[in-house]
Amino acid sequence: MIKAIHINTIILFWGLISVVSCGKDDVSPSSEGTENIQESQTETVVTISNGDQREYIVYTPSTYDEKNEHPLVFQLHGSSGNGEKFYTISGWNALAEQYNFIAVYPTSYIYDLRLNGCGNDLVTKWNNYNLPKEVCPTETLRDDTAFFNQILDELINAYSIDESRIYMAGFSNGSGMVSRLAVELSDRITAVGGLAGFFPEDTIYAPKRIRPLHLMLGTTDEKIAYRTIFQDTIPLDFQQLFTDPTLRGITQTYIKTFDLDPNYSVTDSTEYTLTATFEGNSGEPDHLMKFTIWKDLGHFFPNPDDRDGAADVLWKFFERY
């Protein structure tokens, strides 16, 4: 169990770190890559953001060298999750060891939600663009963009960070949050990717600059499929997928917000995935969005040991930029 620490009181511990699963609903456990982990550092930082006590976990690989600058990857959890859970299940630590980057796992604020009646449903949530309609009237929304700005300042002060290689990944509510950060924090981050969480449909936002994105969705995601005309299983076919008003509307939000050509090409597909690439109207090589459909994937962050998981796919996308 990872112990919390107060900022300016740094407790470091060293030892063998392995990626294990704490629940099959979230991920298939994987041991791939863990055999090479020799000595790594995990630090849990408690900081104050806008008067609130907030927390994030920093995983520094054994290959870390303060003389060299290192990429930085954030993984944002979904509703009711926390940073420790995704530190444990996501597979990012093994990738950090392999590719020599720092992985960060923040925890969101806790809100009272309307879903089960106000006063009965306290849940961790990121303040993405969907949250205002989900919280009870008495709640005050926290400025999570300011929180991430603060985390970045703290990490850059404490570690040797390559500020041209800062990546944001997220799952579910956290995926919706990284989309918001692609708008509001795009002057500081390099690329974003998320699974099972999106912008609201048929809206438009104004990013500070346009960054590459990678969106992902499982065909059997029960949290999203029920909102579509397909009900149970989203088709592994983009022509069919975009006949649904909700999925088409969500995609249109990204197309308009990030100035993308609505015509797409099917690229980078595998036995388990189908990917559409939307090129940016500027023609610049980093002006694009990938949208991947995962065959038979429900609402969880996959980390199987027999093929690439979500973290693997996102890192392959990130490392291009």
TrEMBL record:
It is found in: Secreted. It comes from the Bacteria. PROSITE patterns: PROKAR_LIPOPROTEIN. InterPro entries: AB_hydrolase_fold, Esterase_phb, FaeB/C/D. One of its GO terms (cellular component) is extracellular region. Keywords: Carbohydrate metabolism, Hydrolase, Polysaccharide degradation, Secreted, Signal, Xylan degradation. Coiled coil: none annotated. Signal peptide: none annotated. GO terms for molecular function: feruloyl esterase activity. This is Phospholipase/carboxylesterase/thioesterase domain-containing protein.
